[in-house]
Specification:
Helix content is about 65%, strand content about 0%. With about 160 residues, the chain is an all-alpha fold. It has a domain of about 90 residues.
Length: about 160
């Protein structure tokens, strides 16, 4: 760094140094604690993670992923192409089953993270949205028309 730049940097430092508050190094005082009664009024009721409602939601997600698995295989047998995955992955039935099971596991894991951090409404909604999206995709797969080749196969 050239010598004249050092002078400007030093001059700026000296000019701005007095602007730093003298008590900046002191710890701020702790805010007054809130009453426990006030907290209890606004808290969301806690529940166990594997309660009855979550068990049904996770079963619904698993069932909808199973329905999506079979509807996608049916769609592939009718000559249609998969949109989200490659056809090679879908045609490998074992790999595709693992992907569907992993998606169910990720949904349960996301719900657990929401539960762990106190976001109980998001915990339920994530399963509901996953159930709805997987079911919608499966119904769409069954509603697609069979793809017919442009030219009949040669004898």
């Amino acid at each position: 760094m050239p010598r004249f730049y050092r002078r400007y940097v030093c001059a700026i430092f000296v000019a701005l140094f007095p602007l730093v508050p003298a008590g900046a190094q002191n710890k701020p005082e702790a805010p007054a604690p809130k009453s426990i009664a006030g907290l209890a009024q606004h808290s969301v009721p806690a529940h166990k993670f594997w309660d009855k409602k979550n068990a049904w939601l996770f079963a619904a997600v698993g069932a909808s992923r199973t329905l999506d698995y079979f509807s996608t295989l049916n769609m592939r047998r009718r000559g249609r192409d998969e949109i989200f995955l490659t056809n090679d992955v879908v045609d490998n039935h074992a790999a595709f089953a693992v992907i569907e099971a992993a998606a169910t596991g990720v949904s349960i894991g996301a719900s657990y993270l929401f539960h762990r951090h106190g976001h109980h409404q998001l915990e339920r909604w994530s399963s509901l949205i996953h159930f709805g999206a997987a079911t919608t995709g499966a119904v769409r797969n069954y509603c697609l028309e069979t793809a017919h080749p442009a030219f009949p196969p040669a004898p």
